[in-house]
Amino acid sequence: MKLLRRNQKRDMKKIILVGRTGTGKTTLTQALKGKQIYYHKTQYVNHYDVIIDTPGEYCENRTLANGIIIYAYEADVVGLMMSSTEDYSVYSPNIVSLSSRDVIGIVTKINDVGARPDLAEQWLRLAGCKTIFFVDSVKGEGIADIFSYLKEEGDVLPWK
Asked: Can you tell me the distance from the alpha carbon of 79 to that of 58, in angstroms, rounded to the nearest whole number?
């Protein structure tokens, strides 16, 4: 927790979003910021005020994965994301134990055709996530739950 002077405002916890290409990291970022949802392929790490949005290639490529480690040091929370339409997990069992940050699981696309949020949850639990959120960023479902986790009393949203 940050030390604050009297009447000083603080931002909510900063989160880095990690996951395969197409998992919904950028869509979740747009939903968290209250923006209109539109498709945008992330080509580089986008470092917003309290959200770090990473390209899926950082999760899929062993060489680029080292970049996630560096950026995670700038975050308070790591969000391991997995689409409920995934056919497999890219996360090694108990990989969460390697992090010095809080790690949460975020299951996305929970209302898509063929969605298996239960399977995505199992994979995230196998990776070591104890806290898991289920979201549909397009419909706004589950967004408030993530806010509740990231925001403490007295925190302010930097984009308001």
From this structure: 14
Contact 53, 116 (CB under 8 A): no
68-83 residue pLDDT tens: 777 788 899 999 999 9
Instruction: For the chain, list the domains and their CATH numbers.
Output: 12-151 (3.40.50.300)
CA–CA gap between residue 71 and residue 131 (Å, rounded): 21
Structure tokens at 73: 């040091």
**pLDDT above 50 (res 129):** yes
Predicted TM-score of the model (pTM)? 0.86
Q: What is the pLDDT of residue 1?
A: 46
**H helix or E strand, kind and range, residue 104:** strand 102-108
